[in-house]
Design goal:
Nitrilase/N-carbamoyl-D-aminoacid amidohydrolase, six-stranded mixed β-sheet, 15% strand, globular
């Protein structure tokens, strides 16, 4: 139990700050909220002992995850055939566990804090925040949802994305929060220096937004993204498969004037070998006759190994196949299935035993061009998408966010896709089952979209691009390296502060 009333109040304020931070993400996109909530978080951590810092940071994470990813229970309960009480319980468990990373950040910030000096808010706090975000992005297959840098996709700090990626934006954002805290707490000339630092960071971000690191590659082409809007409850129903295919086919035949048409994830709800003769080959012939390339989401079975994959097939003038490499735990596969026993069976949903593809890079040949391919969850991993560059001249993402209903998830997922387009300076085509399907330009701006839960298509002129941004070459190494350096610089100051505290004791 927490015996200190002031600590209890600080934890509750941290939960509220974390919850309010959700307003900085899509669909709300009030990006200044992120700086204010982070500054409040540091104010609550300032002067705390590590144990207190852990509880405050954990509270912030529970607020952020509790309001930000509550939609996970929809996939477990409404579409995963899980009892409501168990779906709520497991969703709450995921929130609490994901929030532990923020608890670690809080404990380290409190440990390395230095009272009213600068190394706490300007070195330790940004460093440990970004390092724990990065850790959350890959440990145990990774869960990088709600990385704080995504909130700035429409803000001046977005100019940092092609250089340092979303974690670089996180680092700058948390540093700005630390500067804001210093601006409020400090007096005299120091405040002018702090204000100047804050303004310089934002001016630098604005200036960098005007730089293009890549260039057009040849002529553009017309592309269409298709959204059939098949309810998830009917997605795998054998009785509705023909009507589902007819929906995609109808939208396709309305857009044969496009050079490329993209279907959603598992748009064909049958294995490739089962529909090869009846659907795929005739459709490929029709596409060639129309001069169009088709890219279709479809499950693929390896008949010899008896393994199946979440696939993306390109048909038309050239045929190519991509197998999804980064699977969703407890959605596309059950980790530790043998150990979990009955718990694993509670997670059983349709097509939940996929195998991971083994392609070294996520490249898909579409006609004469190469694209960076990602299926659903894969586009939330920045370094994995960039592995296809510079050869890939544009990006493709297919998804099925119908699993999460009318929630924040489709909006948050589109926001992350926008960051991938900006980091790599490539146009991105995104086709989803129920939305939000969209075409994004190389700046991550939405050229057009098909709204949630509407059947339709959107077409636009796409410009392939060549070259590579600094992020393509450096990946997350720049942001993580800077965070490690800042962390190292904060340690001597924290050690001196503790020595002074020990010497002051009688």
């Amino acid at each position: 139990m927490i015996s200190d009333p002031s600590l209890a109040v600080r934890i509750l304020l941290a939960v509220a700050a974390g919850g309010l931070t959700v307003l900085a993400f899509a669909p709300f996109s009030f990006y200044p909220v992120a700086i204010l909530s982070l500054a409040l978080c540091y104010a609550l951590l300032s002067g705390s002992r590590p144990r207190e810092g852990f509880l405050i940071g954990w509270g912030f994470g529970i607020g952020l995850m509790g309001f930000g990813i509550f939609w996970i229970r929809i996939s477990l309960n409404e579409y995963g055939n899980m009892a409501p009480w168990l779906a709520y319980l497991l969703t709450a468990l995921l929130m609490v566990v994901a929030a532990l990373y923020y608890g670690i950040a809080g404990a380290l910030t409190a440990r390395l804090g230095d009272g009213l000096r600068f190394s706490g808010p300007l070195l330790a706090f940004p460093a440990v925040w970004v390092l724990t975000e990065w850790l959350r992005g890959w440990l145990f297959t990774g869960f990088p949802w709600l990385t704080i840098g995504y909130t700035q996709i429409d803000a001046p700090l977005a100019g940092l994305a092609p250089i340092a990626g979303v974690y670089g934006i996180s680092l700058a954002l948390v540093l700005c929060a630390g500067l804001l805290w210093c601006l409020i707490r400090r007096r005299g000339r120091v405040r002018y220096a702090v204000l100047a630092g804050f303004v310089l960071i934002w001016l630098a971000g604005t200036a960098l937004k005007g730089i293009e690191w890549t260039e057009p590659d040849g002529r553009g082409f017309r592309a269409t993204v298709v959204q059939a809007n098949i309810p998830q409850s009917l997605k795998w129903d054998p009785d509705t498969r023909i009507s589902s295919l007819r929906a995609c086919l109808g939208l396709t035949r309305e857009n044969w004037d496009s050079n490329l048409i993209l279907w959603p994830e598992t748009a064909v709800p049958d294995f490739l070998h089962e529909v090869e003769d009846a659907i795929i080959q005739p459709l490929a012939a029709e596409a060639r006759e129309q001069g169009t390339e088709l890219v279709i989401g479809i499950p693929v079975m390896d008949l010899e190994a008896r393994l199946y994959f979440n696939g993306l097939i390109s048909i038309g003038t050239v045929r190519d196949l991509y197998r999804k490499r980064h699977l969703v735990p407890f959605g596309e596969f059950i980790p530790f299935r043998e150990w979990l026993g009955p718990i694993a069976r509670a997670f059983e949903v349709p097509m939940s035993n996929f195998s991971a593809g083994d392609a070294p890079r996520p490249l898909l040949r579409v006609g004469e061009r190469l694209a960076s391919a990602s299926i659903c969850y894969e586009d939330v991993f920045p370094a994995e998408v960039s592995e296809a560059l510079p050869e890939a001249v544009y990006l493709i993402n297919v998804s099925n966010d119908a699993w999460f209903g009318d929630s924040l998830a489709p909006h948050q997922h589109l926001e992350m896709a926008r960051m991938r387009a900006l980091e790599n300076e490539r146009w991105l085509l995104r086709s989803t089952n129920t939305g939000i399907s969209a075409i994004l330009d190389h700046r991550g701006q939405i050229v057009g979209r098909v709204p949630l839960f509407e059947r339709g298509a959107f077409s636009a002129e796409i410009q392939p691009r060549r070259g590579a941004t600094p992020f393509v070459h450096l990946g997350n190494r720049l942001a993580v390296g800077l965070a490690v350096l800042m962390l190292a610089l904060s340690i001597p100051s924290a050690r001196q502060q503790r020595l002074r505290g020990t010497a002051a004791q009688p």
